[in-house]
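Hi C.,

You asked whether I'd gotten around to modeling the 253-residue construct. I have! Everything is below, sequence then structure, no commentary in between.
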Amino acid sequence: MMKTILFILTCIISFSSNLLAKTNKQSKLKIIGVSIESVFGEDTGLEERLLKRVFKCMDQPYELVIVPFGRHFSLFNNNDDFDAVATVPSSMELKGFRSQSHINYYNGITTLKAKNHKIKNFEDLAGLKLISFVGAKEIFPKLKAIIPKLKSYKEMANQRSHSLSLYNERVDAIFSDGYIVSRYNSIIKIESKDEIYRKPVVFNLISEPTAFTVYFRESSKRDLFNKCLNKPSMQKTLDSISNEYRINQMINN
């Protein structure tokens, strides 16, 4: 009789352990990020560093799936396998539950200093060849309005190509976040000894900072994210990290 009881208890414990392990495994969130090195990158990604701090506060394990910017919106909307998606502008509506903003992007115009372009607003871009990231014209109505007056306009997901196009004078200006452009400029300078990639550039902020958010599949995860985000100590930490990146941008320019 005792052996039977012990056998049953062993089976129950084994089953419970397996169930707990399965539950823990399922608790890891699958999050979509974007393939921009200065946004998501182990050492250089500003947004990834910020999110790591918040998810640590949540005690929430996660894994990242990196896709091109622009594709991440539709992938989250059309695939329930993902639990969250980052780098979503506050003006964009997706399926799920939006978090409070965890990061601001500072979008402006980067030009070659030698060209001496005087750009203080979108209207000053008239007659120029402009390149930007995918979806920019939908996020920024003033950009969309000026497109008919541009000499040319194109959007590319690969933002490294933005910098290459500018240095090789295939475009006159880049509209994107200043740190993102600065980071790719630095990478190109390291990889190539060609003097063409050492031309000084100028960054002019012509748009208000753009708040970006995270969309979650579950409201409970969104609420916990916001709770951690709103802690004074967390805000201080995130501000410190962001300021570090912006200082590096100014030095590299």
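If it helps when you're writing up: The chain is about 45% helix and 20% strand.

Thanks,
B.
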